[in-house]
Amino acid sequence: MRAYFFLLFLLLFTAGCDSKPLITVYDKSILNKKIDCMQLSVIPKDKQIASTLQHLYHFSQTCSYRLEVSFKQSIVCNSHYNAQSKALGKMPSSYLKMELRHSLNLQYSYYIDLDHKPDKEDVEEGFERFSEDLIM
């Protein structure tokens, strides 16, 4: 019984920031529509991320769908549930977010916490998941 409570305690303390991708579908109809084209926007500008994505997909600047890719480095997760993770040095220090918008409307989002600056493999994994969920 004591082991059960210890495991539950650990689960609660590690639940605030997660390294698994968080997928959110804001408009369920997007899952059944074919995405014929997308614009690309990388914020802040990053040549490696933009280049990786341009090798994976042919983007068009005249399309009404826009893939917005953003990332941030040197972040701190302030969730009070993470005291143990902070003490053990397992806290994420950056994130990668990919959002699909149609005009101004958010349709789909992929988000992952990372312990390093997003690299080519992170971008490829995110876009692969993006491609699995949407018809392209």
Helix content: 25-40%
Strand adjacency order, main sheet: 1-5-4-3-2
Number of strands: 5
Mean pLDDT equals: 81
Which descriptor suits the 3D outline? globular
Q: Spans of 5+ residues with little confidence (pLDDT < 50)?
A: 2-16
Q: N-to-C SSE series? A: HEEHEHEEH
Largest sheet, if any?
5 strands, mixed
Strand content: 25-35%
Q: Terminal Cα separation, in Å?
A: 50 Å
Helix-strand category: alpha+beta
Oligomer: single chain
SS element count, helices: 4
Kindly provide the radius of gyration, computed on alpha-carbon positions and rounded to a whole number of angstroms.
17 Å
Q: How does this structure look, described?
A:
The chain is of the alpha+beta class. The protein has 4 helices and 5 strands; from the N terminus they run H-E-E-H-E-H-E-E-H. The chain has helices at residues 2-13, 47-56, 83-88, 120-133, and strands at residues 22-25, 39-43, 65-73, 94-102, 105-114. Strands 1-5-4-3-2 form a 5-stranded mixed sheet, with helices on one face. A hairpin with a 2-residue loop joins strand 4 and strand 5 (105-114). Helix 2 packs parallel to helix 4. The longest helix has 14 residues, at 120-133. The chain is globular. The relative contact order is 0.23. Residues 2-16 have low confidence and may be disordered.
